[in-house]
């Protein structure tokens, strides 16, 4: 049987690496000192649980059971301002299930904490490389918002790296996660069994205009990068009107304006353009609109536009058989208080689904808040999710 007290204690301990901000927030971006310290601690817990600890070249951390086994886990890096449960929950729940299973002579269970799920460099970068979706050489060329390359960041792994971990040794993958949206919190359900994970596209866009004096440059002569971005953002909502559904989302979440000074007409803006939907063809139509509108705006305002590499993942359905295990487990642990639902957030499970059967289980997020320091889940719900995961993994 799983040990809820030990599980919660470990979850709080993991939060202490990078604990920051209000509430239970963490700042533990991929490859930061806090992230590496957390992974060192996690590796020690895996070793104490009798697992063989391995780190691949990306920094994905595995605790391996002997022979072929089920793989459980998620990620332990965070957003620049993250909550304590996003990713961490799935990793610590996996550790607890693997450890309990060994203690009670249960089935072999391995554990993983993927690296850079939160996309400091890409989109779910660690699992994307492990699963073969992204070539290591292409990944290495990616840079974060400050210009640091992934190649440079992962060089900091040093002697932690043991070598590649064979994807063929696992029979399937289950990721437990917080929902990160309002569905379970509003319905009162305690468990969500995921049906599908949406697709995503993400690229950097640059408008290059002319830097000039903010007092002397007449409005009609300006080639203002910020004004171009403002027009682009407003125009996009209009152009998308006949393409998107109420479930489609798009976000300009990172903006770097140069030189970012009150008295200078900005000459350059680099921004992130991300969009998500359950259908790949809609994602493609949105891309066409994005590129065309950016070209039009640049042309009309005397700027140039350029686009960075297109990153993305297609929508995936969860494996029917593994999902059924979670549904049975949910009905036993939360009778009448669980539902099937799609995931609007991205997960490592998407990449792993190219290799083996994959399923996911959610617990509620209070107020539907995540990617914020305020993210939280009631502890009885965390434990309920742990028990569902353990049952689905074959622990009675
Ligand atoms: O952005 C996402 O959906 C994930 O949390 N990285
Ligand atoms: Mn996550
Ligand atoms: Mn996240």
Task: Reconstruct the topology from this structure.
Elements (H helix, E strand, L loop, with lengths): L3 H12 L17 H16 L3 E4 L5 E4 L4 E7 L12 H16 L5 E6 L10 H6 L5 H5 L9 H6 L14 E9 L4 H5 L3 E7 L1 E10 L3 E2 L11 H16 L8 E3 L3 E4 L5 E2 L2 E10 L2 H22 L2 E4 L3 E3 L2 E2 L2 H14 L4 E6 L4 H5 L5 E6 L15 H14 L4
Parallel strand pairs: 3-4, 3-5, 5-17, 6-16
Antiparallel strand pairs: 1-2, 2-4, 6-15, 6-17, 7-12, 7-13, 7-14, 8-11, 9-12, 10-12
Helix pairs in contact: 1-3, 3-12, 8-9, 10-12
GO molecular function: hydrolase activity, acting on carbon-nitrogen (but not peptide) bonds, in linear amidines; metal ion binding
Organism: Roseobacter ponti
Cofactor: Zn(2+); Mn(2+)
């Amino acid at each position: 049987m799983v040990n809820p007290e030990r599980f919660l204690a470990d979850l709080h301990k993991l939060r202490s690496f990078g604990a920051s901000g209000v509430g239970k927030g963490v700042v533990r971006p991929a490859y930061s000192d806090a992230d590496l310290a957390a992974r060192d601690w996690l590796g020690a817990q895996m070793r104490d649980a009798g697992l063989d600890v391995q780190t691949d070249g990306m920094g994905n951390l595995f605790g391996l059971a002997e022979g072929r086994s089920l793989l459980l886990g998620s990620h332990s890096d965070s957003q620049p301002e993250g909550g304590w449960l996003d990713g961490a929950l799935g990793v610590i729940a996996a550790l607890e299930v693997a450890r309990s299973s060994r203690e009670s002579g249960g089935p072999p269970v391995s554990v993983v904490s993927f690296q850079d799920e939160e996309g400091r460099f890409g989109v779910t970068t660690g699992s994307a490389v492990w699963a073969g979706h992204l070539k290591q050489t292409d990944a290495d060329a990616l840079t974060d918002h400050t210009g640091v390359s992934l190649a440079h960041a992962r060089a900091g792994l040093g002697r932690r790296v043991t070598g590649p971990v064979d994807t063929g040794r696992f029979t399937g993958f289950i990721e437990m996660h917080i929902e990160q949206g309002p569905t379970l919190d509003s319905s009162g359900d305690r468990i969500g069994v995921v049906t599908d994970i949406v697709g995503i596209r993400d690229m950097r866009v640059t408008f290059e205009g002319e830097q000039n004096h903010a007092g002397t440059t007449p409005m009609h002569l300006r080639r203002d990068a910020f004004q171009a971005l403002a027009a682009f953002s407003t125009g996009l909502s209009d152009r998308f009107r006949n393409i998107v559904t109420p479930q489609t989302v798009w976000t300009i979440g990172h903006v770097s304006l140069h030189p970012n000074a009150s008295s200078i007409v900005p000459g350059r803006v680099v921004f992130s353009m991300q969009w998500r939907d359950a259908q790949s063809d809609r994602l493609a139509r949105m891309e066409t609109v994005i590129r065309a509108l950016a070209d039009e705006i640049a042309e009309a305002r005397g700027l140039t536009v350029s686009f960075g590499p297109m990153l993305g993942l297609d929508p995936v359905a969860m494996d029917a058989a593994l999902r059924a295990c979670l549904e049975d487990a949910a009905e036993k642990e939360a009778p009448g208080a669980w539902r099937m639902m799609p995931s609007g957030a991205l997960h490592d499970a998407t990449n792993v689904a190219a290799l083996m059967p994959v399923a996911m289980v959610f617990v509620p997020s209070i107020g539907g808040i995540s990617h914020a320091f305020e993210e939280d889940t009631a502890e009885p719900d965390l434990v309920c999710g742990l028990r569902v995961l353990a049952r689905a993994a074959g622990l009675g």
